[in-house]
Amino acid sequence: METVLTNKDKQVIISPDHPFVIIGERINPTRRKKLAESMAQSRFDLVQEDAINQVSAGAQVLDVNAGIPGADEPALLRGAVEAVLGVTDVPLCFDSANPDALEAALSIYPGKALINSTTAEESMMSRVLPLVKKYHAAVIGVITDESGIPATPADRLAVARKLVQRAADFGIPAEDVVIDCLALTVGADSKAGRVTLDSMQLIQSELGVNLSLGASNVSFGLPDRKIINVAYLALGIARGLTAAITDPTVPEIQTTLMACDLLMGRDDYAMRWIQAFRRREKAKAAAQS
Amino acid sequence: METVLTNKDKQVIISPDHPFVIIGERINPTRRKKLAESMAQSRFDLVQEDAINQVSAGAQVLDVNAGIPGADEPALLRGAVEAVLGVTDVPLCFDSANPDALEAALSIYPGKALINSTTAEESMMSRVLPLVKKYHAAVIGVITDESGIPATPADRLAVARKLVQRAADFGIPAEDVVIDCLALTVGADSKAGRVTLDSMQLIQSELGVNLSLGASNVSFGLPDRKIINVAYLALGIARGLTAAITDPTVPEIQTTLMACDLLMGRDDYAMRWIQAFRRREKAKAAAQS
């Protein structure tokens, strides 16, 4: 199944047969004080810097979040999206729980965006899915509903099925629903990582949909989080994960995801691997000279 | 299914429900000139050093190889095993294609060893499997037979089935056959990594056996091999890999495998992860003082 995202002429395909899609997470004022302060003043120079850096580090899609407490989120998200469109042509992902903010961004966007996200709560789906349909977007469906996050892979499959079915009710095809299996922290529950991995495999094999993940929660509260997060992406990829909202400017994330593409048979003649190696060598040489 | 290895009172269990088992690969004179020279003179001080270093780096089992062209392999393997038994109590894996060398090691070993390896060639199985039975050992069965290495996961499953069935003919239970799905190099064939990963999943789900891998072949001929090898271990673990013959003294291998245990639900309360982090911090502090 292929989830096609576009920005004008530029197209990105999320699918098990294509390279893993990195959705750059950095344009998000939560826990980034400097970025939040500048965005709150409707200044988007740091947003643009983050856009450029992430794309050059390998992000194929950029997540844009403008959630600042007390601020006018629709205006800010629209402003941030305009700023990003001014410096890059990769497809965008609009990250908000506010339907007005989502619509403000969707209405000016020249392509097929990804919406991050809806849960399987009826109150949420009934507000977000009509926007997905109206603007011909794709949507990330998060595996949680009125009862919370299901404990077992079978119950998570049921919630994923509900998301796909409700989307179909609104005329949205399954390929435009990307499921997020939710990585809870293994620091709180040692089995949390495993349940999510098993859910991914089950949902992928039963529904055939693409899977995304916000992969850094899993390590919350533990030391050496980067090692855990990188390992989790690799484990996820072997279980059907096709995209992740993550930070491509972290070298280990970038190189491991590229190695996974190579090892999953998505890098013919190891061309991308070898080219990326040469870029790293050049960058090293430039840094030393 | 549990593959139990022992050395006197010490026991190691290979199974999907236990921490991943690192079989330390370093005691192997192939491509290690200094080690080969000393072993050829029946000096085993470097062998002992490698044994101690690997165990302290997290190897639960040690592979012992004494294959030096022109040397008396049975005598050398026996000498190396005696030397290793003198400094550590972890279970051992005897790595030889020479049945006399295997028997020389098995006959003095105080426990249940792992034999590395037999192929599914009849000429090989008929020599190795009787030794496995006689000395109550376990064996690594490599997915290749008279026709070479099968191209598809289904054909590799058939070879794995043959290995398990011939072992049963000799009275060896399936839990004592650990299958090596063979990682061919992705530099020569872009799909090689994927075929092996798909084979792992198929063989694990159909036969329930444990899986091991010599994981470093996969990156042969490519740059930045370590990143590829580490990613491959993580991908393999998500597909049922339960052990690997690898180098635990490489920090990235050690930490990634431990992160995978945490994420696969095999590290209750993240105790091992946190303890290993503290050991790393101590080692760093000691190195700086």
Could you explain how this protein is built, in words?
The structure is a homodimer of 289-residue chains. Chain A is an alpha/beta fold. The first copy, chain A, has one domain (3-288): Dihydropteroate synthase-like (TIM Barrel), CATH 3.20.20. In chain A, 46% of the residues lie in helices and 16% in strands. Chain A contains ten helices and ten strands. Chain A has helices at 33-40, 45-56, 73-85, 99-106, 122-134, 153-169, 192-207, 225-238, 251-263, 271-288; strands at residues 3-7, 10-14, 21-27, 61-65, 92-95, 114-118, 138-142, 177-180, 211-212, 243-246. In chain A, the strands form two sheets. Chain A has an eight-stranded parallel beta sheet with strand order 9-8-7-6-5-4-3-10. Chain A has a two-stranded antiparallel ribbon with strand order 1-2. The longest helix of chain A is centred in the last third of the chain and has 18 residues, at 271-288. The first copy, chain A, is globular. Chain A starts with a strand and ends with a helix.
